[in-house]
Structure formats: C-alpha cells, structure tokens
Amino acid sequence: MAFQLVWLSKGKPTTLTFKGKEFRSGISKNQVDYLEVTKNGIIGDDVQNHEFHGGSERVICVYPYEHYSFWENMYQTPLTQAAFGENLTLTGMKETDIHIGDIIEIGDIILQVSQGRFPCSTINKYTNINTLLNKIVEHGYTGYFFRVLQEGKIESNSKINIIEKHHQKISVANVHHTYFHNKKDMKQIEEILSLEELSLEWKERFEKLYLQQTKK
C-alpha cells in the first residue's frame, strides 16, 4: 500500500471521564491541517505524564490506519479520528514494515524511528473498550514513535519518503514480540540491545530483561 497521511492531530491534556470518574490525559487529539515540529515536540501538542510520554525520543506518535478496520471489525464499533492518541495516522507503514532506526522524510522534516509504543490502560478508558489494551499487546498493533532529525512542518498533503532503511532491519513488530512474547530469545535480545538508534527507555527495558534471563 502506498504511503499516505490520513490524519494530522494534536492536543493538550484535558479532563476526561470514564465510568463516572475524571482523569487527565493528553490522548484526546484534534485534527489539524499541519504540524509544526521541533526536536523537542510538536507546537500545540502536549502530554499529561512526562515520565511515560513525550520527550525528544517520542516527539511524534504514529498509528497505522490499516489497524482501524481490524479493531472496528473485532469490537463492532466505530473509532474516532486519532482514537489511539496519535499525531500521524498513515497508510503503508505498519509495525512489520518499519524498523528501528529507519529514516523518514515527511514534508520538509526528517524523522527517525526510535521505539514502538508501550501501551497503557488509558486507551481502554478513552475508547471505552475494556479489553483493547490486552488485544493491542497480543497482536502488536501498538504504533511507534519518531525522533526529529530535522525540524519543520508537516502538512496534510505532504509526501512521505523512506530515505534510509536501517541495516539491521529489526522491525518495530519484532521488538514488541520479543519483549512481550519471546522473552527467552537471548540472541534476539542481544541484537536489539545493539541498536544504537533504539530509545533509552526501551534499551533500559531490554537491559532488565537481559539481566533477568542471565540470572536464571
């Protein structure tokens, strides 16, 4: 499938309600015509919990549009635009297609894949689907993050080009599968840890996993 931007979205933390209880989150995004992107974030976009979201290695959150129909068919319910809290919803770049370290040009900015998304329970509250988080982990339909190598603007009609595929060709899906479903594959863990382009957060996760396995 060709690369194509479907939605550009941004937003700041708001108060949401789930089962009569209020919570604060930046997951709710509004569709926009363009995004102004710096190395530290998207102008006009923010997160609630900076420990687990945002930062220079998680500037742009991406979610493949192809997954929307999968979830809608599974749960027999329509999903809203940017239902997963992503900034870019696009086609042709699923987790199986994209590798850690790949360099992508969108509009006049240059981006690099830094990590897969580590899903949290907020997605259940926002979509009002209690089992969605578990199913995301099961299927690996997490989305992923870009760091910014060159700042600029993304517009709704911007073209997407893959400038460079990382030579190790370790996909976002592969990293997710190893961490959640194949924890004993030491060879794969070591290969993932050798990725210089992998975000610090995920390196720390895999270092802990490596130590756990070597102690057994």
From TrEMBL:
Pfam families: MOSC, YiiM_3-alpha. Residues 29-163 form the MOSC domain. InterPro entries: Benzoxazolinone_Detox_Enz, MoCF_Sase_C, Pyrv_Knase-like_insert_dom_sf, Tri_helical_YiiM-like. GO terms for molecular function: catalytic activity; molybdenum ion binding; pyridoxal phosphate binding. Signal peptide: none annotated. PROSITE patterns: MOSC. PANTHER family: PROTEIN YIIM. This is MOSC domain-containing protein. It comes from Metabacillus litoralis.
